[in-house]
Amino acid sequence: MEKADYFESLVVAHPRMEMMSSRKFGNICCRYNPEPGNPSPNGINLDDLTNNVRKQLYETGRFMISKSLINDDVVLRPVVSGNTFTTMDTFLDLHNTIVEIGDRIIAEETEPTQPRQLD
Question: What is the pTM of this model?
Answer without folding.
Answer: 0.86
